[in-house]
Amino acid sequence: MTTVWAGLATGAIYSLVAIGYNVVLLASGTFNFAHAQLLMVGTFLAYAGAVTFGLPVVPTVLLAAVGVAVIALVEERVAIRPLLGRADRHGTLITTVGAATILDGLAAAIWGRQPLTVPSVLPDEPLTLLGGTLRPVDLALIGLTLVVGVGLHLWSRHTLTGLASLASAEDRDAASARGINVRLLGVGAFAVAGAIAGAFGLLVGARTYAVFDLGHSLALFGFVAIAIGGSGSQLGGLIGGFATGLVYAFAARYIGAAYPQLVVFGVFLLILFLRPRGLFGTALERRV
Amino acid sequence: MLTVAGVTGGYGDLRVLRDVDVTVRPGRITVVLGRNGAGKTSLLSAVAGLLPTVSQGRIELDGQDIGGAPAHRRVRAGLGLVQENKRVFHARTVEENLLLGGYTLGGLGLRGGARREALEKAYERFPILLQRRRMPAGSLSGGQQQMLAIGQALMAGPKLLMLDEPSAGLAPAIVNEVLSMVAALRDQEGLSILLVEQRIEHALEIADDVAVMENGRIITAGPKSAFDDGAVIREVYLGRSGEELTTGNHGKE
């Protein structure tokens, strides 16, 4: 059971990346390749709040959430908005990768290339739960990720703005013709995705350290989570992330420490072959 | 009600509308006719704020200049659009589609206030949608999707309803039903309507005014009585050029 808990804790981080991808994809139709880097910046801002400035937990979480939301808004303004309205919107794939590279470089320049220890906000004494052990901070990470993922799923299905977001993902022009301000929705999605990434900085950093290239591995496993769960489905992203974490943990435990990435990408390819939309995904078709 | 004056626009450098003038009188139906590619859909897109470029001209709704407003503000100003190809949100349920149609209405909650009233009215108008309310819109028949598209556009209570080929892809019996419904919206609810339609005879039956487009221009326009002999329409559709027409009796001045 300890392996399960370890898999769920790691998987929660992949779920957070997948959730961030989906929030932006659903509302703006853009795949933000830099989202894992936003999570990375969140860990650094959490480090800055807790260690550099010595702030208590709540102000640290707020600092990281607001800070990353602002960075996400700047990314939207610089890397996305200039390309809106162009016939070929695939340019955003390149510009968001560019934004990811810039964030990696800035983080390395500001905080250095060595991993920084983000202090745990909860006691380090392991808990025994359902026959396995885990740290309280990991339990909080799993629980809060579940709350955010399920909350966003319910929000998208049972509120007018949530439905507008789904409608906008399906057909932006038709959504505009219904009176939905699709541009504002897209900007809001970047802000929300950034705020969530920042708010989790303390919990994620306590598990991964704050390190400038964290985004690379998170992005890859976030894609796997999306492939398993399906793009455009918040529940799918949530489950896909946890599933990826579990596959990783069990492969490491029972096959060997050198193999989990191979196994995870084997599963990734299998899903792409058997069910390209993922387990819960819907096709985000666009009319042209 | 709607005045489109001297509108020129298109997609980037490609001009698909050239100096277009169209009016819709209050409580009347203006039908826009023309061959495929004449610019009819682009005209509706320009009015709705969905055409990428409108380089010149004026668009007024009820005396209010909406030419520079983004699409969502034009809906709030009273514009309703039923796009071509029964463009509903296929992955969403019928009821979600209708609720999205009432996006601009006030009221707390998804089904609160004015949205609830508009939803009840939509189901009254289209009882079949009530029966299908939990089904994905993509699973409806073509005629039902068209009813949903019209119901969705009516949810916000528009002053002017624009319909882009509402009969396209529908069986003849359903075409009559849909166009009768359009006429009823004018006759019973006093709605002003701008209708783009390929089925000329059906469209002329309910028209008050007619405009004919060719190559992005209005080549002739006027009250329906001016088109009663059918000569102009036949000439447009059967091949005489628009330039010749502009020099004739029905030419645009």
TrEMBL record, chain A:
Decide whether keyword Zinc-finger is in the record: no
Q: List the membrane topology term(s).
A: Multi-pass membrane protein
Q: Where are the transmembrane segments?
A: 6-26, 92-112, 132-155, 182-203, 257-274
UniProt keyword annotations, A-Z: Amino-acid transport, Cell membrane, Membrane, Transmembrane, Transmembrane helix, Transport
- Pfam families, alphabetized: BPD_transp_2
Name the domain of life this protein comes from.
Bacteria
Q: Where is this protein localized, as stated in its record?
A: Cell membrane
The similarity comment for this entry is: Belongs to the binding-protein-dependent transport system permease family. LivHM subfamily.
Name the UniProt record assigns to this protein? Branched-chain amino acid ABC transporter permease
Q: Which organism is it from?
A: Microbispora amethystogenes
Q: What broad taxonomic lineage does this protein's source fall under?
A: Bacteria, Bacillati, Actinomycetota, Actinomycetes, Streptosporangiales
Q: Which gene encodes it?
A: livH
UniProtKB/TrEMBL annotation, chain B:
Boundaries of every ABC transporter domain copy = 2-240
| Molecular function GO terms recorded | ATP binding
Top-level taxon of the source organism: Bacteria
Which organism encodes this protein? Microbispora amethystogenes
Q: Which protein is depicted?
A: ABC transporter ATP-binding protein
| Alphabetical UniProt keywords | Amino-acid transport, ATP-binding, Nucleotide-binding, Transport
Which family does the record claim for this protein? Belongs to the ABC transporter superfamily.
Q: Does the keyword Transferase apply?
A: no
